[in-house]
Amino acid sequence: MQFLGIDSVRELEDITIDAIYNKMFKARLDSKGQFIEVDDWASRDTPVHNIPAIVAVLDKFRNSVADVRLKALEDADQRDAQAVADRKRIQQTEADLTAARKALDESLSMGMNAQDSSTSMRPKTSRSGKQRSAQLTPSTK
Asked: Where is this region: Disordered (predicted)?
């Protein structure tokens, strides 16, 4: 307040309220919290001959932002395409793995069937008559 040459808070509030009513800026005055929240203001100290330069700077900034946005979108498209390609590769790998497991299971199944048939062709040893009769008659103990 010393910098502004104001002696009291009330005097600062009055100046602020006058500026708001004169539409020099849009603000919210909080007397209790002792602060001003400025939303918008009108620049009154910009010389007219500087406005074209300001517009040129803002146009350059707008073009720069547009270029950055375009590059960001292109990068996002590339990343999306890569993600789709990765998903397809994963699905193909999973399908190949499933097919390989199925082929392995079939191969093992055929190998066991071949082994079973080869063991069934072996001659079976005959049992003696004593063993057969023991199997037929139940034992009583």
From this structure: 106-141
